[in-house]
Design goal:
Elements (H helix, E strand, L loop, with lengths): L4 H15 L4 H7 L4 E10 L5 E12 L5 E8 L4 H17 L5 E8 L7 H15 L8 E5 L5 H15 L23 H17 L7 E5 L3 H12 L3 E7 L2 E4 L6 H11 L10 E3 L1 H5 L5 E4 L18 E3 L8 H9 L3 E3 L1 H4 L2 H15 L5 H26 L3 H20 L2
Parallel strand pairs: 3-4, 3-5, 6-7, 6-10, 10-11, 11-12
Antiparallel strand pairs: 1-2, 2-4, 7-8, 8-9
The structure holds nicotinamide-adenine-dinucleotide (NAD).
The site of nicotinamide-adenine-dinucleotide has 20 residues, from α7 and β7.
Length: 413
């Protein structure tokens, strides 16, 4: 049976605690969410009846600032998953040193089976139930799996009506004309590309001589492919759920993007290439491997066959703990998800700052500020990993837990 995700999160905290412990009370505090809210949301369905949905909002820790984290709409949402995701948000925000704690929300529902009107009523109903427990300086939600900028706009509107004033800074990931930030759509791929650029320097990988394979060609993977090829890397393989393509001399990424847009799958690419499966893509002879699709892709079975020198985890949780250990022993540098894909939450932070100040920054400004967050975060984590001879993931946990503990202790518990 798959492990309870919250137990997984606790194990990761424990691993870091064993190497460089934080104050024992601060550790006990971090092992528990500060607040868990369960709500029932009645929604009038198009067919005439009313259905009651269950939703959650978990505020894991707010010692470093307001809780921050997305809202997930999925049939498999469970309280343990939301608790785990909230814990990881505390760690992610502290890893990149932005002044937020961690939170997460979820509603058990299947948005693919619901009409737009039903989703709007559900979203407004969920916000009515949590409105008195969140706020721009308390807890700031955002999109996650199957929640969109439009859903954020409905939730912001509902919140603003409840508090009686326009409050765009209560939620991020909004449409740009509703107070969203430039660069939010590309932030995850952009932030991940900065991390790859910095890791390449450490490994002596010159972009123009380095090959890259990317698994997953959605929001995260396709943007990374485009930016990395603009940075001069040779992107030789990409894939989506229908399979992948490979050309050892490099793919024309602009053309792949166009084909994906027009035909829905990268395998329709008409340039020179051979077809590869998603499993084969992971084991290609490349310098850099970027998992940007699903969790648990790199396992104890395929990890020994991975040839990349750098694995940059743009997806959440693509590497199992056993595989992580194998890669570490093989001297493969793994930049962990909590660092590599933190560009998304970082630009969410920028959106919140712009809303609070009534400003609107250009895309260029956003990307420059993103670099100024991602690059020092990489340095901190890489330096700690080298100093302690540990994987970057554990190093990131150590740094993040010390930052959170410091805030807990300074506030006093
Ligand atoms: P997305 O839905 O836009 O894209 C997912 C991609 O993965 C699609 O191209 C899909 O075809 C592909 N895919 C699905 N099943 C696959 C399989 N079996 N093998 C290979 N590819 C497969 O999602 P996204 O937003 O790009 O997210 C991808 C990963 O990045 C997720 O783990 C997500 O949690 C993580 N992430 C995304 C963001 C963000 O801002 N988008 C932020 C942080 C983390």
């Amino acid at each position: 049976m798959a492990k309870n995700p919250f137990e997984n999160a606790l194990e990761q905290l424990e691993k870091a605690q064993d190497i460089e412990p934080i104050d024992s009370v601060a550790y006990e505090i971090m092992k528990r969410p500060q607040r868990i809210l369960e709500v029932s949301i009645p929604v009038k369905m198009d067919g005439g009846g009313t259905k009651i949905f269950t939703g959650y909002r978990v505020q894991h820790n707010d010692a470093r600032g307001p809780c921050k984290g997305g809202i997930r709409y999925h049939p498999n949402v469970s309280i343990d998953e939301v608790k785990a995701l909230a814990t990881w948000m505390t760690i992610k925000c502290a890893t990149v040193n932005i002044p937020y704690g961690g939170g997460k929300g979820g509603v058990i529902c299947d948005p693919k089976e619901m009409s737009e009107g039903e989703i709007e009523r559900l979203s407004r109903g969920y916000m009515r139930q949590i409105a008195h427990y969140i706020g721009p300086d308390v807890d700031v939600p955002a999109p996650d799996v199957y929640t969109t900028p439009q859903i954020m706009a409905w939730m912001e509107d509902e919140y603003s009506k409840i508090v009686g004033k326009d409050t765009p800074e209560v939620i991020t990931g909004k449409p740009i004309d509703k107070g969203g930030s430039e660069g939010r759509g590309t932030a995850t791929g952009m932030g991940g590309s900065y991390i790859i650029r910095e890791a390449s320097k450490e490994l002596g990988l010159n972009p123009s001589e380095s090959t890259v394979a990317i698994q997953g060609f959605g929001n995260a993977g396709s943007v990374a492919a485009s930016i990395l090829s603009k940075m001069g890397y040779k992107v030789v393989a990409v894939s989506d759920s229908h399979g992948g393509i490979y050309n050892k001399d490099g793919l024309n990424i602009d053309r792949v993007l166009q084909v994906k847009k027009e035909k829905g799958r990268v395998s329709e690419y008409d340039g020179p290439c051979e077809k590869v499966s998603n499993e084969e893509l992971l084991e290609l002879p490349v310098d850099i491997l970027v998992p940007a699709a699903l969790e648990n892709q790199i396992t104890k079975d395929n990890a020994p066959h991975i040839k990349a020198k750098l694995v940059a985890e743009l997806a959440n949780g693509p590497t199992t703990p056993e595989a992580d250990q194998i890669l570490h022993e093989q001297d493969v540098l793994v930049t962990p998800d909590i660092l590599t894909n933190a560009g998304g939450v970082t630009v969410s932070y920028f959106e919140w700052l712009q809303n609070k100040k009534g400003e609107h920054w250009s895309e260029e400004e956003v990307n420059k500020k993103l670099d100024e967050i991602m690059t020092p975060a990489f340095r901190d984590v890489y330096t700690k990993a080298k100093e302690k001879h540990i994987p970057m993931r554990t190093a990131a946990y150590i740094i993040a837990m010390h930052r959170v503990a410091d805030a807990i202790l300074k506030r006093g518990y």
